[in-house]
Specification:
The protein is of the alpha+beta class and 165 residues long. The protein is 62% helix and 13% strand. The chain is built from five helices and five strands, in the order αββββαααβα. Strands 4-3-2-1-5 form a five-stranded antiparallel beta sheet. Helix 1 packs antiparallel against helix 5, helix 2 runs antiparallel to helix 3 and helix 3 packs antiparallel against helix 5. The chain is elongated and about 60 Å long. The N and C termini lie close together (10 Å). The relative contact order is 0.21. It is a multi-pass membrane protein.
Length: 165
Amino acid sequence: MAYLLMFVTLLHLITLAMQFIATMEKSWWVWNSLENSDLWYNCRFDNHTETWLCASSKETEWHKAVQVLMVLSVVFSSVSFLVFLGQLFTMSKGGLFYFTGLCQVFSGLNAFSAALIYTLHNKAILQNSRELTSGHFGYCFILAWVCVPLLLCSGVIYIHLRKKE
């Protein structure tokens, strides 16, 4: 049982870190190694000054939806972890981690919705940025998709996990 507890805690921390990176880093869409776009900015590397020059992304309804859903995903996962720690020390023997599991499932559903919206509406989100055919999805977009099954699985594990002493 101790190994399962350590596994689910480690899985939770890994998915939380992956979600945070996917939300904050600047690589949801990449044109080349010198130009990319994320949920917040469109950035270009200036070889002359050797710095990234970033401008705010154009706000569309789909873009705002992806931003909000990814932030909500991180918040739900963070709340889930804090509640799990609280339940771990205060819950009576034999109790189930329902609330923790539900928060993780909601976090996974938010990440799923955000990644799906970005997949289906990237032309509207990245409009006027640059020609999309010369670009591809970046690693943060892939991290968001990888988080979805991990979050859903950890949520199901939490729902079935019983506290034993």
